[in-house]
Q: What sequence folds into this?
């Protein structure tokens, strides 16, 4: 299998969240349809030996049987970062279920790059910092379809809403961030040369 050992991220799946303001903007007609699609899309990209970091709000409600049985259907080693809907009761269910880590936030180093994993968008750098020195924040919470928070290249949105309800691979994230850094550099150089842009 060519996916072995990869790292994936997703935030805000909101599995079992029976409110149409969640599932309808995602293109689903019911919460059941959304649940099935998220499980299918997850398993279509994640292998059994991959790691998946869920950056908050994995499930809504505390239906213990539903949560534990759904987690068992999902491929990969699951790490959970606490979200605003993740109560102490739900965190206990996650810890007792088929997960390998349940924490409030986490630093992760990959290919000499430092990532800060959190549910909420977090300022970890600034636009004056050299890009190679960025601490890259991966986040959710906003339910935005934009991949970047206010255009900042070091704040990357891994929410289900921004990635067609599918976990996104860390290597894809790095490509997207590097492309955003280059885009900002081109715009900065052009502005310094007196060029103007119309949006």
A:
């Amino acid at each position: 299998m060519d996916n072995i050992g990869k790292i994936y991220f997703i935030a805000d799946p909101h599995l079992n969240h029976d409110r149409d303001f969640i599932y309808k903007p995602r293109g689903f007609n019911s919460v059941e349809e959304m649940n099935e699609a998220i499980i299918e899309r997850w398993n279509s990209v994640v292998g059994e030996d991959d790691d998946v970091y869920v950056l908050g709000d994995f499930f809504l409600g505390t239906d213990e049987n539903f949560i534990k049985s759904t987690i068992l259907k999902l491929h990969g080693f699951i790490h959970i970062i606490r979200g605003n809907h993740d109560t102490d009761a739900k965190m206990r269910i996650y810890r007792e279920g088929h997960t390998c880590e349940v924490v409030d936030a986490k630093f992760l180093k990959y290919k000499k790059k430092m990532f800060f994993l959190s549910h909420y968008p977090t300022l970890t750098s600034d636009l004056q910092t050299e890009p190679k020195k960025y601490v890259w924040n991966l986040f959710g919470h906003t339910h935005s379809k934009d991949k970047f928070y206010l255009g900042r290249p070091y704040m990357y949105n891994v929410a289900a809403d921004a990635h067609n309800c599918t976990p996104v691979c860390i290597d894809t994230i790095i490509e997207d961030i590097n492309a955003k850094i280059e885009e900002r550099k081109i715009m900065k150089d052009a502005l310094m040369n007196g060029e103007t842009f119309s949006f």
Q: What stands out?
A: Helices lie at 20-23, 31-45, 64-73, 88-96, 170-192.
